[in-house]
Amino acid sequence: MSVNTEKSMHDGSGITRLGITQEPWLAPEGTMDIVLESLRQLIDYELAVILSFEGKDTLRVRTMKGPLATRRLADFSISLLERRDLALLLAAGEPRLLDTEPGFVDTYAEILDLPEGHSCLAAPLTV
C-alpha cells in the first residue's frame, strides 16, 4: 500500500477494503505514533524519542513514547555543535548504540534521571 502524506489529497471518504477503512494519507504525527507503537511490540523500551533536524545544528523532539516520556521533553532541543557524537552519527546515517562509558553525557541527563547502565540506540531516519 502506498501512503500519501499530503492532507490536500484527503476527501474524507477513506478507502474500504476487506471491511477495513483506511485513510488515503497519514499525517506525520500519526505516522510517528504508529512507528513507535510498532517498535514497542518488538522492544519493551522505557523511552523512545523521534527528533527532527531543525537547520544545520539543531535537533528538536517531535514525539515520544514510553513510561519515561514526560512533558519536559516536549520542547527539548539538542545543539549538534555541543554534541559532536550525534552530528557524526547523523553524517554516517547508520544506527548504533551510544557510548555509555564514564564521561559520557546522556542526551536527556538534564531532564530525566535514567538508571545507570541503561542503553541508548540512535537510528537516523531519512525521508
Q: Which properties best describe this structure?
A:
single chain, 127 residues, alpha+beta, 2 domains, two-stranded antiparallel ribbon, 19% helix
Question: What does the model show?
Answer:
- By secondary structure, the chain is α+β, with helices and mostly antiparallel strands.
- It has two domains: 1-44, no CATH class; 50-127, no CATH class.
- Helices cover 19% and strands 21% of the residues.
- The chain has a three-stranded antiparallel beta sheet with strand order 3-4-5. A two-stranded antiparallel ribbon has the order 1-2.
- Strand 1 (15-17) and strand 2 form a beta hairpin.
- The relative contact order is 0.12.
Biggest pleated sheet: 3 strands, antiparallel
Strand order of the largest sheet: 3-4-5
Unreliable stretches? 1-18
Helix share of residues? 10-25%
Number of domains: 2
Query: Pairing-aware structural class of the strands and helices?
Result: alpha+beta
N-to-C terminal Cα separation, in Å?
Answer: 17 Å
- The dominant shape is globular
What is the structure about, briefly put?
The protein contains two helices and seven strands, in the order ββαβββαββ. It is α+β, with helices and mostly antiparallel strands and 127 residues long. The longest helix is centred in the N-terminal third of the chain and has 15 residues, at 28-42.
